[in-house]
């Protein structure tokens, strides 16, 4: 199984999703999942995650400082089985780029039905937004991992 997390800039939500998912995946050694993240926009290509995202993740024992932003490519739709968007705008951008016959496209938060359906963009807000994003990503990551584990 190959999973790609996608947001707009690939510096806040999707690298955080990748970090959270990797941390929790490591607790389930029977699961083989390839994980990556990307942005629909190209503004931040090559950059490290936002310092606020790195700090919030670090507080939870997750190091995302080695990740570098990249933009979604047409190839991603064939390389990955599942592409998970952080919000509806990301999902509609992905649908527009999708050449078809490849990855399943979904909102990541669909996996956590007791949570809001969209991960809010924390970029222009305060530190609390980054904590809220991590709380939501943790819930969805655990739910997705439960589903993957049940299927194998
Ligand atoms: P992300 O957040 O999509 O969660 O990485 C954003 C990062 C940068 C911008 C917008 C959202 N920006 O406009 O530069």
Could you walk me through the main structural features you see in this protein, from its secondary elements to its overall organization?
With 152 residues, the chain is of the alpha/beta class. The chain has one domain: Rossmann fold. It is 40% helix and 13% strand. It has helices at residues 13-25, 51-59, 76-79, 88-97, 127-151, and strands at residues 2-7, 34-39, 82-85, 104-107. The radius of gyration is 14 Å and the shape is globular. It starts with a strand and ends with a helix. The structure holds 4-nitrophenyl phosphate (4NP). 4-nitrophenyl phosphate is lined by residues 7-13, 43, 121, 123.
Index terms:
40% helix; 152 residues; alpha/beta; 4-stranded parallel sheet; binds 4-nitrophenyl phosphate; Rossmann fold
Provide a short characterization of the protein structure.
This protein has 152 residues and is an alpha/beta fold.
Write the layout of secondary structure elements.
Blueprint: E1 2-7, H1 13-25, E2 34-39, H2 51-59, H3 76-79, E3 82-85, H4 88-97, E4 104-107, H5 127-151
Parallel strand pairs: 1-2, 1-3, 3-4
The chain binds 4-nitrophenyl phosphate.
Residues 7-13, 43, 121, 123 line the site of 4-nitrophenyl phosphate.
């Amino acid at each position: 199984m190959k999973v790609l997390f996608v947001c707009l800039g690939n510096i806040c939500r999707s690298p955080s999703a990748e970090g959270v998912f990797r941390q929790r995946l490591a607790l389930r050694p029977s699961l083989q999942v390839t994980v990556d993240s990307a942005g629909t926009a190209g503004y931040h290509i090559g950059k490290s995650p936002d310092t606020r995202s790195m700090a919030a993740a670090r507080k939870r024992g997750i190091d995302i400082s080695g990740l570098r932003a990249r933009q979604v490519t047409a190839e991603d739709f064939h390389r990955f089985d599942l592409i998970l968007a952080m919000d509806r705008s990301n999902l509609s951008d992905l649908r527009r780029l999708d050449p078809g016959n490849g990855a399943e496209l979904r909102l990541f938060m669909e996996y956590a039905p007791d949570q809001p359906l969209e991960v809010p963009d924390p970029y222009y807000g305060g530190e609390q937004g980054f904590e809220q994003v991590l709380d939501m990503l943790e819930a969805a990551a655990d739910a997705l991992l439960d589903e993957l584990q049940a299927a194998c």
